[in-house]
Amino acid sequence: FTTSDWNTAQSVTISATEDSDITDESTSISVSAAGGGYDDATGTVSVNVTDDDAGSLILPSNAVALTEGDTTTFDMQLSMLPTANVTVTLAQPSNTDVKLDTDTNESGEQNTLTFTASNWNVAQTVTLSAAEDSDTDNESTSISVSAVGGGYGDATGSVSVDVTDDDAGSLTLPSNAVPVGEGSTTTFEVQLSGQPTADVTVTLVQPSNTDVTVDTDTTDTGDQNTLTFTTTDWSTAQSVTVRAAEDGDTTDDSATISVSAAGGGYGDATGTVSIDVTDDDVGTLTLPSSAIAITEGNTSTFDVQLSALPTGTV
Fold first, then answer.
1. Which residues face 49 on adjacent strands?
2. In angstroms, what CA-CA distances link 281 with 8, 178, 306?
3. Is the distance from CB of 190 to CB of 171 less than 8 angstroms?
């Protein structure tokens, strides 16, 4: 300052660098003068620095993969040095098959983590488990995460979880051969083992023994060979009608019906149903209907025949 510009204010620029914490800070600038009668002039300027960093939670960026009936883990940590202890709370997901635990050494499922000024940048582990269920659905859910304390009061997030179902859909079919009398009909039932993810079409193949036929809907003309199960009626058994035609032999017979499924997680489901046919034919002898005429001292003949194909030598 000179004797001519002493009363004109002069500017001082202050800059605050970015740092890695979320703390508001303060400092002071010492000021002193020399010359012109100002040798004893001193003072301080206080400076308050408002931090522009918002503390956030570092969570998995992709869905955490988990197999039904198994466990897995994911890590989380803080983005910046907190001003005090930070408590992170994880909400148990709405899908109750999936459970989380922040401390497996404690009984029960814990759902909080604590980060301090000394361990804020050290990842902490959360354990996830997926219970077995009775369906064949792959499922997904999410875990809500929130923090309090240490400048993290606005920090929230979520963790997505994808659960791969380990159940292979199978068909519930008769375990024993289905008996049917020749010339008669009977039924057997087909059911799914668990809830499908979509409609399931079950196809039954007409057996190679053409005397035996299957029909999945006797109200329609002809023999139908498919059944449809939905996500709502999957647990209700559906009936299949089996017919055994009359034939010209006396042999008990058998047949095999191949069964396969498609859709709703049942693409690999196959099976067979055995059919045992009891023949209703009683073998008789075909003999002359009239008396055989023969003259004394002579010979004559008559014929004997079977009425139907026998099961062996007669």
1. 25
2. 129, 20, 12
3. yes
Q: For the chain, how big is the Rg over CA atoms in Å?
A: 44
Please tell me the predicted confidence (pLDDT) of residue 204.
Answer: 97
Give the three-state DSSP class for 270: strand
Q: Is residue 72's pLDDT more than 90?
A: yes
Tokens 């923090």, residue located:
147
Residue 147 pLDDT level (bands cut at 50, 70, 90): very high
| Amino acid identity, position 115 | F
Q: What is the pTM of this model?
A: 0.56
**Please, what is the average pLDDT of the chain?**
92
**Residue of 132, 200, 125 whose CA lies nearest to 163:** 132
Q: Where are the alpha helices (DSSP H) in the chain?
A: none
Q: Note whether 216 and 242 are within 8 A (CB).
A: no
With contact defined as beta carbons under 8 Å apart, do 259 and 202 qualify? yes
Tokens representing 226 are 């498919």
| Helices assigned H by DSSP within 72-198 | none
Percent of the chain topping pLDDT 90:
73
Indicate the pLDDT class of residue 51, thresholds 50, 70 and 90.
confident
CA distance 210 to 222: 15
Using the predicted structure, report yes or no on whether residue 168 has a pLDDT greater than 80: no
Largest CA distance in the chain: 178
Query: What is the rounded CA–CA span in Å between residue 174 and residue 203?
Result: 16
Calpha distance 165→117 (Å, rounded) = 41
Beta carbons of 98 and 129 less than 8 angstroms apart: yes
Residue 140 CB neighbour total at 10 angstroms: 14
DSSP assignment of 65-85 equals: EEETT-EEEEEEEESSB-SS-
How far, CA to CA in Å, does 82 sit from each of 75, 264, 295?
A: 18, 49, 130
Strands, E assignment, 193-296: 200-205, 212-215, 226-229, 238-244, 253-262, 270-278, 285-286
Query: Rounded CA gap, 157 and 51, in Å?
Result: 22
Q: Is the pLDDT of residue 50 over 90?
A: no
